[in-house]
Design a protein that fits this description.
By secondary structure, this protein is an alpha+beta fold. It has a domain at 62-133: Orthogonal Bundle (Arc Repressor Mutant, subunit A), CATH 1.10.10. It contains 17 helices and 13 strands. The strands form five sheets. A three-stranded antiparallel sheet has the order 2-4-3. A three-stranded antiparallel sheet has the order 5-7-6. Strands 9-11-10 form a three-stranded antiparallel sheet. A hairpin with a 6-residue loop joins strand 10 (334-337) and strand 11. This is PORR domain-containing protein. GO terms for molecular function: RNA binding. Residues 48-377 form the PORR domain.
């Protein structure tokens, strides 16, 4: 909407918040002071979003297979005794025996026999199949093609942090969420020494990745980029702000609607801006924290991240201790899923129904892996179909033979 008298456009969408009208006095009159209700007294009831939960459910089988593959690939020689992997089922959240898992997902591994110790008995081992090794080569190709994107993501993660430095252990733990390759510390970081520096004692839990050079091109959030692009298209200056849209059937109480209205009128604070001068309990820091959470989810592959992972960065990104409540308080921006017993923060604007709108280029890796899995599933389904038909044919032949025997018995009895 265009505001009369100034070249200004708001990106914020209020289509699902009934009777929510912005008051622009604060922009037109600098002496006007916004009145905010204390956030501690404002509660938003969590409501289940079936479509976004479905998006998480759709990836459940893929993620389980990815965890098992990662476990095998991390072993020396990329091979492991089957019984060793069976002992890790609980940690892998695998609710069937490994042998059953392999039968259900053919094409991932091949089984061979070897000795654990020189004089021990032969036992079954697992190693990547030829099909999986081909996928790993394809994965490397996709990473190579998107190396600049990976470097920018890693820079952005550091640039948003308080001291422009993050523990290596944390970055390694979240690499899959943001699409960082397994070997980013060994190959990528040394290659881009103009951006990154490893400090501390690697391997002892005391190593850190430090930002060396600040790149202004990386210091623009998704929201700021979107505002700039719209300004260029329309010729109207667009104010960076959050897209705020509640799902159908969701409504806020009057006092919460008023708080959201006033909170959205606050100036957007970039997650890359220095906020060391701001009070941690201020409303500006609330806006900045939401901006950081929004940017982190935007940088993630699936535009969603488990909340415990985000919680690991509380100190790095200056989140308040109550940052968890931001996902329900700002339910027009985020959704917090409870699917699978894990709290997952989801960026609403990134999804249409249960499908991602704009896919990260690195998601090509996931697509290739899913193709590998589906090929194995089709082969298994075909094998089961052939087996069922053979059983049916055998039963028909047996029934026919039994019929012949019965007939012969009756004839002999008549004689």
């Amino acid at each position: 909407m265009i505001i009369p008298g100034i070249l200004f456009k708001s990106q914020t969408s209020f289509s699902s918040i009934s009777n929510l009208k912005l008051n622009f006095k604060s922009f037109l009159n600098p002496k006007f002071t916004l009145q905010f209700n204390p956030i501690s007294s404002l509660k938003v009831v969590w409501r289940k979003d079936w479509t976004l939960d479905e998006a998480i459910e759709n990836d459940k089988r893929y993620k389980l297979c990815a965890r098992v593959v990662k476990e095998v690939l991390n072993e020396p020689g990329q091979a492991i005794p089957l019984r060793f992997l069976d002992k890790r089922r609980e940690r892998l959240r695998l609710n069937v025996r490994v042998k059953t898992f392999i039968n259900n997902n053919p094409g991932l591994f091949e089984t061979y026999y070897d000795r654990i110790r020189p004089k021990s008995d032969l036992v079954p081992f697992l190693r990547p199949s030829k099909r999986l090794r081909n996928f790993l080569e394809e994965e490397k190709r996709i990473y190579d093609e998107n190396e600049e994107l990976v470097v920018s993501k890693l820079c952005k993660l550091l640039m948003m942090s308080r001291y422009k430095v993050i523990s290596v252990d944390k970055l390694v733990y979240v690499k899959r969420e943001f699409g960082l390759p397994n070997d980013f510390l060994v190959n990528l970081v040394p290659k881009y020494s103009n951006y990154f520096r490893l400090t501390g004692s690697p391997g002892e839990g005391q190593s850190f990745l430090e930002l060396v050079e600040w790149n202004p091109e990386f210091a623009k959030s998704v929201i700021e980029q979107r505002a700039e692009e719209e300004s260029q298209l329309t010729g109207i200056r667009v104010r960076p702000n959050f897209n705020y849209k509640l799902p159908p059937g969701f409504s806020l109480r009057k006092e919460m609607r008023e708080w959201v209205r006033d909170w959205l009128e606050l100036d957007y604070i970039s997650p890359y801006e220095d906020v060391s001068h701001l009070d941690q309990a201020s409303r500006e820091m609330e806006k900045r924290m939401v901006a950081v959470l929004h940017e982190l989810l935007s940088l993630s592959l699936l535009k969603r991240v488990p909340v415990p992972i985000l919680g690991m960065f509380t100190n790095d990104y200056r989140f308040s201790n109550a940052f968890l409540s931001a996902f329900t308080r700002h339910s027009g921006i985020f959704y917090m899923s409870l699917k699978g017993g894990i709290k997952t923060a989801v960026l609403r604007e990134a999804y249409k129904g249960d499908e991602l709108i704009d896919k990260d280029p690195l998601l090509g890796i996931k697509d290739k892996f899913v193709e590998l899995l589906e090929e194995g599933w089709r082969e298994r389904a075909e094998m089961l179909r052939v087996r069922r038909e053979q059983v049916k044919k055998d039963m028909e032949m047996m029934a026919a033979k039994n019929g012949e025997l019965s007939e012969q018995s009756c004839e002999e009895a008549e004689l």
